[in-house]
Amino acid sequence: xxxxxxxxxxxxxxxxxxxxxxxxxxxxxxxxxxxxxxxxxxxxxxxxxxxxxxxxxxxxxxxxxxxxxxxxxxxxxxxxxxxxxxxxxxxxxxxxxxxxxxxxxxxxxxxxxxxxxxxxxxxxxxxxxxxxxxxxxxxxxxxxxxxxxxxxxxxxxxxxxxxxxxxxxxxxxxxxxxxxxxxxxxxxxxxxxxxxxxxxxxxxxxxxxxxxxxxxxxxxxxxxxxxxxxxxxxxxxx
Length: 238
Ligand code: ATP
Hints:
Layout (H helix, E strand, L loop, with lengths): L3 E12 L2 E12 L3 E5 L6 H8 L6 E6 L2 E2 L5 H7 L1 E4 L11 H8 L6 H14 L1 H5 L10 H13 L5 E5 L7 H16 L3 E6 L2 H7 L2 E6 L2 E7 H5 L2 H6 L5
The structure holds adenosine-5'-triphosphate.
GO biological process, one term: L-amino acid transport
Family: Belongs to the ABC transporter superfamily.
Protein name: ABC transporter ATP-binding protein
């Protein structure tokens, strides 16, 4: 039975006179990994920025059944929509531990926050080894783990990840892969946005292909894997 956590309907976004999204619709069901793939400039980040409350739009975005048009990004985080941006937005001079604690700044249940700190350190043992290290001195892969860890500290109902594999070595991508699978097995709903279609197809249950601001294809991971256009244009290029 359908149980949508995120519903995007007929979304248009403009930067000045330039249209970045044109009639975009998609749904992420509770418990699943939703995927969005598409080339450079397709509008993927724009879509996430709108969903996270950073951009004005025409159309409808519902989270947990509620129209979120009037909510600002902080309210959305408090409601459980936590966005891990492509830029990671870490506090560079703060330690790993301090960055993780910042992710929980809007939460009041200190016991639950402590339990989630343990959960993040279990998920990413490399962070546990580097609790006191300044974020800016970490490798790109470690910073990505920290960004995901900090997002998890917000206690997301929906964890939104923008290009988590961008620029990372294969061995680190494997760590991110394992973390995504573990989280989803534990019931975490995710929206995964990737230029790396191979990675997205490995994890997402259902996907949308975004090209030039429009959803050109949507369907199950199996349908995407069986689609000649997808395999020829997108798979295997990473
Ligand atoms: P990438 O994978 O390279 O990050 P993307 O699919 O995330 O690409 P967006 O960053 O959403 O694509 O960009 C979609 C379109 O909107 C592009 O044509 C881009 O130049 C334009 N755009 C993005 N941000 C702005 C902005 N702040 N002002 C004007 N145009 C923008």
